[in-house]
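Annotators were shown the component list below and the corresponding predicted structure, then asked to write short factual statements about the assembly.
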Amino acid sequence: MNTIARLANLCVVLGIAASATAADMLQYRAKPGSKMRIEGTSTIHDWWSESTLVGGRLELDPTFPTDPAKSDLKPGPVTAQATVNILVRTFKCQWGAPMDAIMQESMDAKTHPKIEYKLKELSFKEAKDGVLHFDSKGDLTVRGKTKEVAFPVKFERPDGKTIKVKGEVAVKMGDFDVPPPAPKVALGAIKTSEDVKLTFEWNLEQQVAAAK
Amino acid sequence: MKAEPSRTPVESTDFNRRDFLKGSSAATLVAMLGGTPLVAPSVLGQEKAAATQSGVPLKVAVIGCGAWGREILNTLARLPSAEVVAVCDSYQAMLRRAKEPAPKAEALTDYKAILENKDITAVIIATPSHQHKDIVVAALKAGKHVYCEAPLAHTIEDARAIAAAAKEASTLNFQPGLSLRSDPQRRFLLDFIRAGAAGKTAFARAQWHKKQSWRRTSPNEDREKELNWRLAAATSPGLIGEISVHPLDNISWYLDSRPTAVTGFGSTVLWSDGREVPDTAQAVFEFPKGAQVTCAATLANSFDGEYEMLYGSDATVMLRGNKAWMFKEVDAPLLGWEVYARKDTFYKETGIALVANATKLAAQGDKPVEEAPYTSTPLYYALESFIYNTDIIHTAVKDFVDNFGADDKAALAEALSKAVINNKPAATWRDGFDATVMALKGNEAVMKKARIEIPASLFEV
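Structure shown to annotators:
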């Protein structure tokens, strides 16, 4: 066996999350059927806005469990990289086309067409009921402003080649300089609340390794 | 449409019980019927920004520049989200006239050049009805989104071909020219009538009286024959097919059913100039629950113009343009709000005004005044919906394909069904086909002066 293979074996035996090189990481890309929902409230009614187009990619260590029931991960950091992007214009609001227009204006979709996220840290907590639980930390960019956000995520594996990442995080519009919309209506104006909850479900499938 | 600046009341913006009891009737009415209309800040200004997803106006072409095609061009000129880049007509004089509403558009005599132009996203077809099919089918095949004027065609076979092509083209927007389906006042009345406010419908009547010849003249004999396609039995859907198709679709929509038979009456009363199409026609449609719907149209008289009546067991509803009134039967149950609503007297009858968008009027003062809630035509709303919906669908398909590729058709269809949930109201290919079948059957009955059945199988595509 060559040296590298021996080292890799050693790392596995010692239970150290091996820092695999980029070439070794498993590539997962976004597939249809995901969703990202923003939920908020206002002086008149609660509202939600949802996009079904969550794009991006995920890179995982080859040792990442393909079956949560047989996971041998130990609590602690795992090697992973992820970038997510969602076009603001793909969001459809509960209260119709006028609210879509209001949202796009508030988010300044013309200048900042996408919401972006970059994973910085992923830390394993436990495997329970066929789900792998992690803590995540990453940079969320909305309306051109970046802020670090931390929230728990769950990884499900419908099969060895697909992954479903689920999570939710509460943020404030003000953190990203997004002005809470105050649209005028016949009898005055609606004031939107600053606090919103982001809930997402991200579907990915493993990409066949492309020739370098 | 000039946007009225809204005047926000000085007091609390909360919708409170005092206002309710004081009888701010219009606002009360709308609140009771549900919904708080939202207006995007940018929309409140005088000039609407190009409201497409990309920020750049949608490039469209109009094929067929006769009188109606030019009306479409005039309307598109008021929609900043659309840019007419090409106009097409087989007749040069029409192209010259189209220059006025569309000065920057390229003028072409062959529509195929338009279908080959990759920059053009959508086409609007306003040619004579019998020429729709070839152009629509070719346009959909070329990947263009299509707005096709109503009736879809002059024969049921052609209409079915159009419907089948539209059904097949699941990633393209197809909208028939049934503009009343996009009209806010007519949509407002849909809920009202479907909720049973009028009771059981006994009769409905749609009339169109306009004294005019319909015959066009041209020094060129061939051109004259072409121009008078409406007067030849082979190419004309008749008065019922061309004119009554719109109110017939509207009433069928309100009644949520399709007729099972129609009896026709036709005669040429005034314009005896050798034409094959009667200048006076009536078609009485039999609807499933017993409603008898008469469509009457004449070129010999202009009295009372164009309006529809729905005679129900609890109330009669009169629809005139963008206004409507309800005349309650004496023994009809009290709905409550009509006590506060505005009323107008018609000879001896008192009609309760049914006003869409009443809260906007309320914001401008205490009482809803006698004025139309808006002044745009149904065509404006229909084209506005078409441009908006086409842009949404076009962009959604593009975004999906950019991210995931075009292979998974089922996933694309699923994503598209979620992307269109906020699309603006518009007629679908199904609405257009059904209305065309009903109207053409009505015309057939008029030409035969007979009762003919309309089997449900006719509506299959």
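Statements collected:
1. The first strand of chain B starts at residue 58 and ends at 63.
2. Residues 58-180+380-425 of chain B form a domain with the Rossmann fold fold (CATH 3.40.50.720).
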